[in-house]
Amino acid sequence: MLPFSTISSTVIGVIGFFGLIGCVIESPPESPETVTERLIPLLTDVQPDTRRTAALSLGKIGDPQSIPALVLALSDQDDQVRQSSAWALGTMGDSLSDQSLVALVQHLTDPSDSVKQAVVLALGRTAAQEALLQVLTEAYPISTIDTQRTIIQSLAHFEFPFSYSVYLQALESPDSLTRQSAIAGLGELGDPRGLPVLRTHLLQDTSVGVRSEAAFRLGKLGTSADVLALKQAMETDPTPNVHFWASWALVQIGQDT
Fold first, then answer.
1. Is residue 135 domain-resident?
2. Residue 168 pLDDT
3. Mean pLDDT confidence for 117-130
4. What's the whole-model pTM score?
5. What range defines the domain where residue 93 resides?
6. Is residue 225 situated within a structural domain?
7. What would the DSSP string read from start to end of 176-230?
8. What's the confidence (pLDDT) of residue 256?
9. Can you tell me the distance from the alpha carbon of 62 to that of 35, in angstroms, rounded to the nearest whole number?
10. Which single residue of 24, 82, 178, 195 could bond 173 by disulfide (Cβ 3.0 to 4.6 Å)?
11. In this structure, is residue 142 part of a structural domain?
């Protein structure tokens, strides 16, 4: 553990670097590389708040030399440290190696929902290759419901053709957020095979969120073949949200409501 005076000087240096204090700094500001070198050891400090602050600061600086240390911090015992480390890695998405990307993917199974969400957002900011994320097709059937939701949310950031089959599996989930994410993923994928699936869930799904998402996606991708289902939803669905999006979708397709 670093002495308190050392920690204090490092934190003050970081604050000075970002210009968050109003006083006049007589000495020249330190370079991002120097500040990064000072912050990296704090990722293993005994105090969780210090580790979390270090991870956040490293993410703001964005120096790739901190990536290996942040990858290690993904295994920190503190949820907030892991969450902050995932976020920081996402800010350097273009600089992440395959090994670092694998580490992020592995933490989609983190026991903390907040960490999993941070990993999802981080992966969405990377240039992850299809071969790397394709392993999620094998992980999905054997994962918990929470992890399955996270997997679908991650895949929805990309447009990999293999995702289509995983989305179909996800639409059988008892979890409405998983189904809604799968509908959104189908919409982003733009595969015409998904249009009948969207119509089915627009009219039959028990979740308002799923039905609304399906209506919205049909407005983006639908054709005249989808008009009947949209009109039926607009006329019979008991919720204003679905009614609104079905009406909007009809206008997008070019049909008067």
1. no
2. 96
3. 86
4. 0.70
5. 1-128
6. no
7. HHHHHHHHHHHHHHT-TTHHHHHHHHHHH-S-HHHHHHHHHHHHHH--GGGHHHH
8. 62
9. 11
10. 178
11. no
**CA-wise closest residue to 188 among 161, 223, 226, 225:** 161
Closest CA to 245 of 150, 253, 178, 16: 253
Q: Are 38 and 6 in contact (CB under 8 A)?
A: no
- pLDDT for residue 20 is more than 80: no
| Token pair for 189 | 């994928």
**Helices 145-155 and 163-170, interaxial angle, to 10°?**
140
User: 108: which 2 tokens?
Assistant: 């989609």
CATH of the domain at 56: 1.25.10.10
Distance CA 201, CA 34 (A): 54
Q: pLDDT of 180-237, one tens digit each? A: 999 999 999 999 999 999 999 999 999 999 999 999 999 999 999 999 999 999 999 9
**Count of domains observed in the chain:** 1
pLDDT tens track for 62-90:
999 999 999 999 999 999 999 999 999 99
How many whole angstroms from its chain centre is CA 164? 19
Q: Is residue 35 part of a domain?
A: yes
